[in-house]
Amino acid sequence: MVTQYLRSHVSYSRKRSFLTIMSGLIIGFCLGQIISYVTISESIKSISIPVDKNSQNDIKQLAPSINTFPEIIHDHPYDNSTVADQLKKEVRLLCWVMTNPTNHKEKARHVKRTWGKRCNILLFMSSAQDDELPTVKLDVGEGRENLWRKVKEAFKYVYKHHYNDADWFYKADDDTYAIIENLRLMLYPYNPMTPVHFGYKFKPFVKQGYMSGGSGYVLSKEALRRFVVEGIPNPKKCLPGTVVNEDIEIGRCMENLNVTAGDSRDWNGRGRMFPFIPEHHLITKVDMSWWYWQYQFYKTDEGLDCCSDNAIAFHYVSPKMMYVMDYLIYHLKPYGIVREPHRLPAKLKVGEFLPPPIQEIVNSNEDSMDDDDKLIKTTTIKSTPTEPDSREVDSKEVDSLTAKLHKPVNKKKESKSAKAIKAKTKKN
Ligand SMILES: *[C@@H]1O[C@H](CO)[C@@H](O)[C@H](O)[C@H]1NC(C)=O
Ligand SMILES: *[C@@H]1O[C@H](CO)[C@@H](O)[C@H](O)[C@H]1NC(C)=O
Fold this sequence. Notes:
alpha/beta; Spore Coat Polysaccharide Biosynthesis Protein SpsA, Chain A; two-stranded antiparallel sheet; binds 2-acetamido-2-deoxy-beta-D-glucopyranose; manganese; disulfide bond; nucleotide-binding; transmembrane
């Protein structure tokens, strides 16, 4: 049709047909933009993170059989857990898991049966009573828009009932998987009276960064006190009412309360708390959500070198995967290889912090990276009331941007971290 039309008009007026094509292209482009805009706003509304497509099925399959679902309960008489046991006494950890009535049976109970049981105290925060878990029934409505209120109510409850029972207070979701021993290791040197909180740090919206909600965040005893006593009652410090983005809001609140956003990377600069499942960090996906690359506070390696040997938390872990992780981490061991724990670091005084990871010191001799790093640390993006939930933006939105952001960063950093490791190995 179009070609026919063009052909019949070519001799008549070349200029005119050119204009027709151009306006056609422009209209087409605009329509495309409108359509893709609509698609994007749709996708922002629904949770569209690259989760395992089978995970919904997983939950359905797992639920009916759960009462007969066998737990791995056998001893490992030759395991030496002296150090882990010592840390359990010295670094007392209260974990509270954000859940909701739909998820009590489908997700929360699997948290309890896997990683949750390793916390000193484990609480499930929900809007409904459930004696089996059990839950703490908070007086808040359900739904994502109530998340911020729920977080505040949960920490108020924790402060009121358990302030003296723990040193650190970890908030997680019911699709978080955490390796509690490694969380204690990270916290071990810190004094609980230091105002600090740790998590996977994102850089926008809050000057010092904020902790991504999904892999959880852990507040020191003093951070908890400031939040509940000085923050929540003061609308100048912490946002009253409720919003969806609880992680950004608590980040703002922590900054206003002078609670430092801690660095959860290990001594080598490898990440320990992660916003996705292990596979998405280990096997780098170029189409991994574009915002992830923009939001990272620290430029970390992705790929097989991504993650600390003492990793602490992952997000979007399906209930089935929690059992798999538990088996791989706590049971499966290659015979004849025993890893002795490193010596524990020295304890810090109140207000003292560990120096940044070795990797950063190596990088500081290299100009290009230096500037990038500075930029990242000082960039403040002003928030707007319409900002999307950071965890809900679709991965497919800006493929080209992702590729652009992703590829050079990764290559460059890989070689650098390799250098860092070599430098470290030489020194020893
Ligand atoms: C267990 O490990 C600790 C620390 O590595 C060590 O001091 C202790 O001797 C070990 N115990 C046994 C029975 O091997
Ligand atoms: C914030 O904390 C730092 C270190 O803990 C302290 O030096 C500073 O005075 C505090 N600022 C305010 C406003 O409390």
